[in-house]
Write a structure and sequence with these properties.
Helices cover about 45% and strands about 5% of the residues. By secondary structure, the protein is α/β, with parallel strands linked by helices.
């Protein structure tokens, strides 16, 4: 929503016609763009040689030398206007942006400093350089979103106590634990340890660690150190903890609970390991866990090394990265070696996953199908949890836009086609917590040793954590030597040490070789023309068919991963699923579209009596889909709820998904074919189904009678065209 007062600030900054001060959109929206522009305007007014978005040390020192306190009496009008504009962008009364530091501006600055907690350190209405720096940020100083007043009070306390230290700057007072707040807490600890301003860095380095080892707190302790410790507990969202200067029995009890949660020795004291766990995502990085993960094959010698070093559980990868030389996949016989040596294993699925663009709902579906395929191939049993990796510093908006849709795709696929497996996630704390809170995973494998990730800084440990990866170490020597990631285990996932014989992947369909795409299209066009289906339209009904053969082909080929995955999962031929879908797309008519509109009208308060139609890529009736899915659920082929094809609420639910969700429609087409075979007493379609039976199954997809029989005969020819290209790929 546009704010007219912010728009005034934008108009003011746009009044500068100065190289280095960019024009901003006058949209009335507060953003870093306007704050950066105001920073550049201030630098210009300070006569600095270089203008930049950064309010850095030079800007601060220059401001300090020229205007140590801005209250209107000693500043030029444009500097006052920058203050007024910043106040407007922060939600305070800026006093008309007229260059006058009047009573309204004075009251706003006074309120701003109270909200920051620095009013005692900076009494009066003056804008000091550090206040000005904070003013030109997007940091809030009132509680926002999920913030709490208790966290805000701690933020204000730190601002008040440490603001006069040279390298401590005003932190947000929004009631939320964040990267900046975590760094400020470390600065505070370093200041209390007696570090000078040129030594304190805000990092959890050796001096800070040594100092904390000498500051164990227990019942009866009091003072600033208890305040800092209780603040860390509050920041980590520990229930029942108050910000306090007294280490009493209540705080000790909460500390014991926290130590139990993160699997530390339960002492009830603020000892070094507890401090470390509260302050940095690795905790005490020298701590040894009982779990590990690695890209290296676990041989018998390496298994004995792991056991000798206290390891019980090892994470191994289900697949390699395509077109990569990295050889990390579980090796033949390796799981038997792991089990026979008394170790357990948990599977990890990761191919790429190193940037936001990789993640989407469709990629999640593809990853889930691949993970199911490999987990069954290696013989992982029912109940195994597969950890899907998010191996980059995902920002919060990327979690919303990319990661959560990706895991929606994973969950939809696992729930239907791999229901024997559970879903885990590997990633930074925030990513794991958000995906878990969305109900998409059942446990987290935290990439704790990525201490610089913004998704780890300022975020508490996920409540469902199973493993916490805190360091990379080498153990053993010679044939038993191995480099591992050292993981702390919570006990939520004990891994697996017994496996099924495993399944075969030979003769299963594989992804299409896209270099042969044009040749396949040409052969499809040639075949369809031979049976009276030209590239475009139909001779007997000109203008009725909107899709060309090329359109239909391009649509199905973009879903090759899905057709391949379904065929592999269901152990049937990809061509069998492709044929009716391509045919129905090519034969879509205006009448089909009109029928869909009537169904929508029926369910949205209109007068149409039509409650079902063949819809989506595979032109499937909702009732047909329900019957097919019910059959497959009862046969244990897929998982899902039994629905009633005579119940309009069920019809409407399924119809909408068929109509709008291509993945759901294509997967339903596969299930319709399975149910069709049963309906006509033909064996379930498999890898060796005869052409005669395939013809009958394809015919039943269309219905019964002579028209359906003709449909089957036409599609089996199309099946042969696809198999001309698919069969050789299976044999490579």
């Amino acid at each position: 929503m546009a704010d007219e007062l912010v728009r005034r600030a934008q108009r003011f900054v746009n009044s500068y016609n100065v190289p280095g001060i960019p024009k901003v959109d006058e949209d009335g929206q507060t953003s870093w763009t306007i704050m950066y522009a105001l920073t550049r305007a201030l630098q210009y007014e300070l006569r600095m040689d270089t203008l930049s978005d950064t309010f850095g040390p030079l800007t601060l020192s220059t401001l300090q030398s020229q205007y140590p306190v801005i209250n209107g009496g000693n500043t030029q009008a444009n500097v006052n206007r920058i203050v007024q504009s910043g106040l407007y962008c922060k939600g305070y009364d800026g006093g008309e942006i007229d260059g006058t530091f009047n009573d309204r501006v004075s009251a706003a600055v006074t309120k701003l400093k109270q909200n920051m907690g620095v009013d005692a350190a900076y009494p009066g209405d003056g804008v000091t350089p550090k206040v000005f720096k904070a003013l030109l940020t997007m940091d809030p100083y009132v509680v926002v979103e999920d913030g709490t007043e208790q966290i805000r009070s701690i933020q204000q306390w730190m601002n008040a106590r440490y603001i006069n230290r040279a390298n401590f700057f005003i932190i947000p007072c929004d009631g939320n634990f964040s990267r900046d707040v975590q760094k400020a807490l470390l600065f505070a600890i370093q200041f209390e340890l007696g570090m000078s301003d040129d030594v304190a860095t805000g990092a959890f380095g050796p001096m800070t660690q040594a100092g904390l080892r000498n500051n164990t707190l227990s019942q009866g302790s009091s003072g600033t150190w208890v305040q800092l410790f209780s603040a860390a507990m509050v920041f980590n969202r520990r229930d029942g903890v108050s910000f306090t200067s007294s280490f009493d029995s209540a705080l000790s009890s909460r500390v014991s609970e926290f130590q139990t949660f993160v699997n530390l020795p339960v002492t009830g004291r603020g000892d070094y390991q507890t401090w470390a766990e509260l302050l940095v995502s690795t905790g005490d990085a020298t701590r040894r866990g009982i779990a590990c993960d690695c890209i290296t094959e676990i041989t018998a010698a390496r298994a004995q090394t792991l056991l000798a070093n206290g390891y019980q559980i090892v994470g191994r990868y289900l697949s390699d990265v395509p077109n990569s030389t990295l050889n990390k996949q579980i090796k033949p016989g390796e799981l038997a070696t792991i089990a026979s040596n008394g170790l357990h294993v948990f599977p990890i699925y990761q191919t790429y996953g190193g940037e936001a663009s990789y993640f989407s709902r469709y990629q999640g579906q593809a990853d889930a199908f691949a993970a199911i395929d490999w987990a069954r191939y290696f013989g992982f049993r029912t109940g195994t949890r597969i950890y899907f990796a998010v191996d980059f510093d995902a920002l919060d908006y990327q979690v919303t836009d990319n990661i959560i849709p990706h895991f929606v795709g994973i969950k939809d696929t696992i729930d239907q086609f791999g229901h024997e497996y559970q879903i885990g996630i590997y990633g930074p704390r925030n990513v794991c917590s958000r995906v878990g809170s969305a109900g998409l995973t059942s446990a987290s494998f935290v990439s704790g040793m990525s201490t610089g990730f913004s998704g780890n800084l300022g975020y508490p440990m996920p409540v469902d954590w199973a493993f916490d990866q805190i360091s990379t170490i080498s153990v053993g020597s010679g044939a038993g030597g191995i480099e591992i990631d050292n993981d702390i285990a919570s006990g939520r996932d004990g891994g697996q040490n017994a496996f099924n014989p495993g399944s075969t992947v030979s003769q299963l369909d594989v992804g299409f070789d896209m270099t042969k795409k044009d040749a396949l299209l040409t052969d499809i066009q040639t075949y369809l023309v031979s049976i009276g289906v030209p590239e475009q339209g139909m001779p007997e009904l000109p203008g009725i068919y909107p899709n060309t053969t090329t359109d239909a082909f391009n649509t199905v080929i973009q879903y090759d991963y899905l057709f391949t995955s379904l065929a592999r999962n269901l152990r049937m031929r990809k061509a069998l699923i492709l044929c009716p879908v391509l045919w129905e797309i090519r034969h879509l008519t205006a009448a089909d579209t009109a029928a869909d509109a009537l169904v929508i009208d029926h369910y949205t308060g209109g007068v149409s009596p039509k409650n079902d139609s063949s819809t989506g890529l595979g032109q499937i009736f909702a009732a047909t889909a329900i019957v097919a899915r019910n059959y497959c659920v009862l046969q244990g082929i897929v998982s899902g709820s039994i629905m009633d094809p005579s119940k309009e609420s069920d019809l409407w639910t399924v119809w909408q998904k068929l109509h709008a969700d291509d993945t759901y429609n294509i997967s339903t087409a596969a299930l319709v074919l399975l149910q069709a075979a049963s309906d006509i007493n033909v064996a379930r379609p498999g890898l060796d189904t005869s052409e005669a039976d395939s013809t009958k199954i394809l015919a039943r997809y269309n219905g019964t009678g002579s028209d359906a029989a003709e449909y089957g005969n036409q599609l089996i020819g199309l099946y042969r065209v696809f198999e001309k290209y698919f069969a050789p790929l299976r044999n490579q």
